[in-house]
Design goal:
The chain is of the alpha+beta class and about 575 residues long. The relative contact order is 0.04. Helices cover about 50% and strands about 25% of the residues. The longest helix has about 80 residues. The radius of gyration is 48 Å and the shape is flat.
């Protein structure tokens, strides 16, 4: 393959640079070795003769006019002299370069090699290629020619620095061109040698493709047949699913989270009393929902769009046609679009009015029984207190201890009955909040003072940041704090430490109670605040309770616009928190 003009020019430039480098090195070596005492320089005014032994000024002019950088070093490696080309090449002022250590221009990774070369040059002439670094931090590939000089004022080391950058670039470019030419030659040769074989191969491949195409056509026919069968099966499955939905009295719905457009089954529309045909959207659905529950549903929709949280919500609606109040439960899953964003919800709707009415009847029964039990318990507590007073007067220790135990049991029963009553009020919507500005530190102190006089089995400490106000119902919030501290005492061993504190975090007030109790497994943590939930552990079997305290606490905090959560590790202890919005001091 013929060489390009650029290739030929590069080769000629490379040869000329190599000849100039050899001539410069020969001249420098001749000068250093004393083989010549004069130079003939070809300039603008013709050939001029410069003697070296007698014309020191001419010699210095010659050194200054050199294209190479020249310098001399003393025994310590400092620069005694350098020409202006050295200063220009290394981007430093000439007056600053003289007196500087030469090794300051050597990069760290070449420093060891440079030191060895300089040490060797004091006894023998040396040449080496390495990289130097100028004042701007740029690395340059150079050749160093080193020779020791015995001068009148002492021994010095002469160094001639030749910039190899252009040569290296030309060599690299030439190597690249040669490699490209060689690769082109090999490719051309291979193409020429294999052209006939490739044609034959392509012919055979074409024949094979034709056979494959015929086979693919047959396969496509079979796929079409299977697709038709699958579509028929799918239609049958859809019919079966529709029958199952109808048998279960279920409705289905698909909601676009971005546009709010909804696609609903006929049963879904009938459960709401919505038109059986026509387009529907999210606003039309919300119009049927009890206004009290609309913020909850809107928050559920936001959670679906932001985090893909599954839907499971129960709420009342007003039937659009009959005006009847019915309870609905919707359960759904969030789907992603092609970009991985949460885009739609597919949900199933069921009418749970009968279940809700059963729960209401059960709650009413619990409330009635709890209310009826309060009167005899109050009387029993009065009798026991009277008998305790009589036992103390008669100094009957046995009767006094027995009566104290009976009083404790009555107090436990009273607490449980109050819990059931609060649960009934909560679920019937009769648990009203009387909110007012409240300094939480004072409420915590009041509760902890009561515990300090009644609880001697644990070490209780309290540290609260003062001046933090919340808008809360004092009695209800006190019930939550009392419940959390009571649980810490109940579920931690005697003589252990219980820490209670409150502090500000962002725009919220945080309450925290920490114990050294049995701890809670990670699988139980998400269910702690569910109604009637209790962890199934051997330790829990010895502790009384119905699992409504934390449920009530969570509902009270939620109605205050706050959050409640827990952290725990089995065998180490638990930490319970709740947060409430901070308000300005009234």
């Amino acid at each position: 393959m013929e060489k390009s003009i650029e290739h030929i020019q590069l080769e000629q430039a490379h040869k000329e640079l190599q000849m100039q480098l050899r001539e410069a090195n020969d001249i420098i070596d001749a000068i250093r070795s004393g083989e010549v005492d004069a130079l003939v320089v070809n300039g603008e005014n013709g050939h001029q003769l410069f003697t070296l032994k007698t014309a020191d000024q001419s010699y210095r002019i010659f050194i200054e006019q050199m294209t190479e950088s020249a310098l001399t070093l003393d025994l310590s490696g400092r620069i005694l002299y350098c020409n202006s080309n050295f200063a220009d090449f290394f981007k430093v002022p000439l007056e600053k370069a003289i007196g500087t250590e030469f090794l300051d221009f050597v990069p760290l990774d070449n420093l060891s090699l440079a030191k060895e070369t300089i040490d060797a040059a004091w006894t023998a002439d040396t040449k080496i290629e390495l990289e130097l670094q100028n004042g701007e931090g740029k690395r340059v590939c150079v050749q160093l020619s080193l020779k020791a000089l015995n001068l009148d004022e002492g021994t010095a080391l002469s160094i001639i620095i030749t910039d190899l950058s252009e040569i290296k670039r030309n060599q690299s470019l030439l190597e690249i061109r040669n490699e490209e030419l060689e690769e082109s030659r090999r490719t051309t040769t291979e193409l020429n040698e294999n052209l006939e074989r490739i044609v034959n191969l392509r012919t055979l491949e074409l024949e094979a493709k034709n056979k494959e195409l015929a086979t693919a056509i047959k396969q496509q026919s079979e796929v079409n047949r299977q697709l038709k069968t699958a579509l028929e099966s799918l239609k049958e499955s859809e019919d079966n699913l529709s029958s199952a939905f109808n048998a279960g009295d279920l409705g289905s719905c698909s909601l676009d989270l971005k546009t709010g457009k909804a696609e609903m089954s006929e049963r879904f529309r009938l459960l709401y009393g919505l038109p059986v045909t026509g387009d529907l959207d999210w606003k039309m659905i919300l119009a049927c929902v009890d206004p009290v529950y609309i913020p909850e549903l809107e928050q559920i929709l936001k959670d679906c769009l932001s985090s893909g949280k599954p839907v499971d919500s129960t709420y009342p609606i007003i039937h659009c046609v009959s005006g009847e109040r019915r309870w609905m439960r919707v359960v759904g899953k969030v789907k992603k679009d092609l970009n991985g964003h949460f885009s739609s919800v597919s949900a199933v709707l069921m009418d749970v009015t009968d279940q809700k009415q059963d729960e209401q009847r059960k709650n009413d029964f619990i409330a009635m029984v709890s209310h009826e039990l309060k009167t005899p318990l109050t009387s029993m507590k009065g009798y026991i207190q009277f008998m305790q007073l009589k036992a103390r007067k008669e100094e009957n220790m046995f009767a006094g201890k027995a009566l104290e135990g009976a009083e404790r049991q009555i107090n436990k029963m009273t607490s449980m009955i109050n819990g059931f009553l609060n649960l009934s009020r909560l679920e019937s919507g009769k648990l009203l909040l009387e909110q007012q500005p409240l300094e939480i530190a004072s409420l915590i102190k009041e509760i902890m003072d009561e515990y300090s006089t009644t609880v001697t089995s644990h070490h209780l400490t309290s540290s609260c940041q003062k001046g933090l106000f919340v808008n809360a119902d004092r009695d209800k919030l006190g019930h939550v704090i009392n419940n959390l501290v009571s649980n810490a005492v109940k579920y931690s061993p005697a003589d252990s430490r219980i820490d209670v504190d409150s502090y500000q975090e962002d725009n919220n007030v945080i309450f925290r109670v920490r114990d050294e109790g049995m701890g809670i497994h990670g699988t139980d943590l998400p269910k702690l605040f569910e109604r009637f939930y209790r962890a199934e552990t051997p330790q829990m079997a010895t502790v009384s309770g119905f699992g409504i305290g934390l449920y009530l606490s969570a509902e009270i905090i939620a109605r205050h616009g706050g959050k409640i959560w827990a952290e725990s590790e089995p065998g180490i202890g638990s930490v319970f928190y709740f947060s409430l919005p901070l308000i300005a001091q009234p």
